[in-house]
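Q: What does the assembled structure look like for these inputs?
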Amino acid sequence: MQLSSRQIEIIEAAALRIDEYGIQNLTTKTLAQDIGISEPALYRHFAGKNDILLTLLQYFKHQLQQRLLLLDTKASAAVTLKQIFQQQFQIFTENPAIVSVIFAESIFQFNPELSQKVKEIMILMSETVENNIVLGQKQGEYRSTLSPKATVTIITGAMRMAVLKWKLSKHQSDLNQDGQAVLDGLFKLLLK
Amino acid sequence: MQLSSRQIEIIEAAALRIDEYGIQNLTTKTLAQDIGISEPALYRHFAGKNDILLTLLQYFKHQLQQRLLLLDTKASAAVTLKQIFQQQFQIFTENPAIVSVIFAESIFQFNPELSQKVKEIMILMSETVENNIVLGQKQGEYRSTLSPKATVTIITGAMRMAVLKWKLSKHQSDLNQDGQAVLDGLFKLLLK
DNA sequence: CAATTAGGTTAGCAAACACTAACTTTATGT
DNA sequence: ACATAAAGTTAGTGTTTGCTAACCTAATTG
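A:
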């Protein structure tokens, strides 16, 4: 993941475009205008539009991965899980456009390569949470009423829904607060 | 909601296109080819592409509303909630393309009118579930540990995630079974 | 039965699309 | 200082897009 500052500028402008006007409005023209260069200049930094999108997804996936490595592994399962989502909420709040790209299974559907990347990001999160649940159940921290798989579906689904509501409010609501509330609710149900 | 059979044919073909190849591949050309008529013939039935999409959303919203009215209002809250989602799963299984359209906040983002309709559908479901939670808590059927709002976020989020997983499996998994499992899991956590 | 209408056709248009050719300017390295 | 490479420009390509004009045909209706 070695990108020039211009490449990052392009990627972030692309995410912003998608966030604000949807994938259909992301054209080489609008993108070039957003960063104030000519259209062909984009091709000095990327092979084409598809390359921009693929790099964009790879870039965000890499960011997520890096952040997950920073987690305190000595903390209890519940504390770690809380950290995971707090971290996510922070990333999203800092750069809301990411959400539109990462949670958008449908918008990259036209391209197998791109939709595969989105899937990878989703699996990355799912597996992180699943490992946490398995560990927490083994250590007797979480109730074992539900299978880890079902638990993961509930948790990640609920978290995604919290993020979606925040997005639909056009980031007017407080993701950190509302997301935390839902997570606390989940803990009330899951913790022994 | 009075639509000619040709209009319904067009709408359903459009949903199928979106489901299989994404919104970017839904063009007047592909759509006309799908149903074996010429492109301009589409304009005998709709004012334009946008009109097709708006009618499509209205059509599915109407279908959902109609089905919700069929619910047995005398049943207990938990039974009703189960019915609501069973019904949804059934609709989705019968016509998988609907999912790609109804759960796609992002793909209609380019048009305020269309994204508003998607929002309406989401609110319709949220409110239905919320009413159920409030009733169930009042009647002492559900635990009142969580606020209704948080509970709704968890339930609808988990259900959406179940549907998303089914979609990502390309409908190979069993939505009815897996969705039911997640719902049962939620009941274990929510019921007194 | 004539007139109207509904529903279809072929041909084609202006705008938007991703991208390229050819050239110029700016930065870098020896 | 100067050759090279990196990064920008203007102009323009062929294709695709949503949609229209003009015309045809079969069904409906007064």
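The interface with chain B takes residues 21-25, 100, 103-110, 119, 122, 145-147, 150-151, 153-154, 156-162, 164-165, 167-168, 181-182, 185-186, 188-190 of chain A (CB under 8 Å).
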